[in-house]
Specification:
3 helices; alpha+beta; four-stranded mixed sheet
């Protein structure tokens, strides 16, 4: 990260700006997150509908230890290789995820980070 990016991040944090309204000139962060959420849900729906034997699609309001984040739920894909792809999604999208198996608590998180999620997503179409 350059000094410019560090300075911009510091300025955003100090100003308490609504990051949902910050734009790259084409889309706001809010629009991009809405796209990510919608695309992930569409992927989950398609995997649930067409590849039910290879992927379990689930949702839960609680983490594996019972902790609940107010206003959020977790939705995930368990792949045949025993790996997870999961995101926290806003509760106002819960009803849209009704096709997923509802669990009382999510599976134990396997420690995946952003890089692993991207690699696992690529594996879905590189087979």
């Amino acid at each position: 990260m350059t000094n410019t990016e560090q300075a911009l991040n510091w300025l955003i944090q100090q100003s308490k700006a609504d990051t949902n309204l910050i734009s790259d000139g084409h889309h706001t962060f809010a629009e991009l997150y809405d796209h990510r959420i919608t695309l992930f849900m569409a992927l989950c729906y398609l995997l649930h509908t067409y590849e039910t034997d290879q992927h379990q699609i689930w949702r839960s309001m609680a983490h594996h230890d019972g902790v609940v984040w107010e206003g959020w739920f977790i939705m995930g894909i368990d792949t045949a290789a025993g790996q997870q792809i999961s995101y926290h999604l806003p509760m106002n999208r819960w009803d849209e995820a009704g096709f997923a198996t509802t669990l009382p608590c999510s599976p134990i998180w396997d420690g995946h980070q952003s890089k692993e999620v991207l690699a696992r997503l690529r594996q879905l179409y590189e087979r």
